[in-house]
Specification:
By secondary structure, this protein is an alpha+beta fold. The protein has two domains: about 170 residues, no CATH class; about 120 residues, no CATH class. It is built from 13 helices and ten strands. The protein is globular and about 60 Å long. It binds cobalamin. The site of cobalamin has 38 residues, from helix 2, helix 6, strand 7, strand 9 and helix 8.
Length: about 300
């Protein structure tokens, strides 16, 4: 059975009602040029030591392999812009200033699953994904009409900017897809490319080997000297290529209080982190994305930011 435009419209209204900031619907095929882009990205070694980006290659490029029977993907955006962050001794990326988004968005998507069931009046097969599954999320978001890919490689929504999380509900429903894509509005601007202190951005996309975000969150090895000098105080993630983007200048603060700066930011300092043990670290940073780095890495990042200068 295929569904009407009215079903799609009601699903969209339900998603906004639940607190998502934007929603689009697309079929589940990854565009051929993105498949090629992804292959080239790996071929250049841009994934650095993130081997998980090479694993499950087929699933990432073929949503049918990840969720057999998938027909429509409901793509959701959650805005997290948190305004002027209070001066912190060390810089934490905006996405990690509030609560960890993974669980929160999954919960919201579970509610959306229930709403969709009410709207279509029957059970259906679906699976929610946020960030961790082998899904080419930005690609699906572009296809669902939610924005364009900037030179900083981020999805930029025309009103929400790029401080948005992407989440998807894979479904076996034949929903009416959004076919109007947003035109790329970067033009000749290359502020992000020029602002990146470690020159991670180029026509080939983002080279994780040079990216501060990669080195301060994902990498398991010590930060190389060349990158240390570029840290500029960043100790967990980096937003430089988003902070300079003109499309983020006028965005409003996110409406979800979960993504506003939390108390945990006060504990990101050498004194506290070297005094506590790992158990206390887990307690202090419970429910936040900083757990991903762990205490020792965070400490090392702070040391690196100090020795790299600019603090
Ligand atoms: C690996 C990863 C990283 C790596 C590599 C980042 C990268 N640019 O590839 C590192 C650790 C560096 C990283 C950093 C960050 N990440 Co990250 N990351 C991911 C992850 C898990 C996979 C991304 C991936 O597949 N990269 C490989 C490249 C080749 O793919 P891609 O960038 O998605 O690009 C595809 C499409 O965009 C399209 N495409 C690319 N260029 C163009 C151009 C045009 C014209 C078109 C039409 C299409 C197109 O084709 C590409 C694939 O073929 C995703 C979650 C997911 N499952 O998708 C989150 C994700 C991309 N990250 C996210 C976030 C929030 C961040 C940070 C902002 C965190 C921070 N503040 O430190 C930074 C941003 C750095 C940056 N400029 O990208 C969000 C991004 C939201 C957004 N608005 O785009 C995601 C989507 C997680 C989520 N669910 O919200 N990340």
């Amino acid at each position: 059975m295929s569904f009407s435009q009215e079903h799609s419209a009601r699903i969209k209204a339900a998603a906004l009602q639940l607190g998502f900031d934007a929603i689009g619907i697309t079929d589940a095929a990854i565009p051929e040029q993105d498949v090629k882009r992804y292959a080239a990205w790996l071929q250049h070694g841009n994934q650095a030591k993130m081997d998980y980006m090479k694993n499950r290659y087929d699933m990432r490029l073929n949503p049918q392999a990840l969720f057999p029977g998938v027909k429509s993907v409901i793509v959701l955006l959650q805005a997290y812009y948190n305004g002027d962050l209070q001066e912190q001794p060390y810089k934490i990326a905006r996405y990690a200033a509030g609560k960890d988004y993974h669980k929160r968005l999954k919960k919201r998507m579970n509610k959306l699953q229930a709403s969709v069931q009410d709207i279509i009046g029957r059970d259906f097969a679906s699976r929610p994904f946020v960030d961790t599954a082998p899904v080419l999320e930005r690609s699906l978001a572009v296809k669902a009409g939610l924005g364009w890919i900037g030179k900083n490689t981020c999805l930029i929504h025309p009103e929400l900017g790029s401080y948005v999380f992407i989440a998807e509900l894979f479904t076996d429903l034949d929903l009416v897809p959004d076919t109007n894509q947003v035109k790329n509005r970067c033009g000749n601007c290359k502020r992000c490319v020029d602002a990146c202190p470690s020159m991670a951005l180029s026509n080939h996309g983002l080279d994780a080997r040079r990216c501060i975000s990669y080195h301060t969150i994902e990498s398991k090895t010590d930060i190389p000297d060349g990158i240390k000098q570029s840290l500029n105080g960043w100790v967990f993630g980096c937003d430089i290529c988003q902070e300079v983007c003109p499309h983020n200048k006028k965005v409003l603060k996110a409406s979800d209080p979960d993504f506003m700066p939390g108390k945990h930011l006060d504990f990101v300092n050498l004194d506290y982190l070297s005094r506590i043990d790992d158990d206390q670290f887990v307690k202090t940073f419970a429910g936040t994305s900083l757990l991903r780095a762990g205490r020792i890495k965070l400490l090392k990042n702070i040391e690196a930011a100090k020795t790299g200068g600019n603090q």
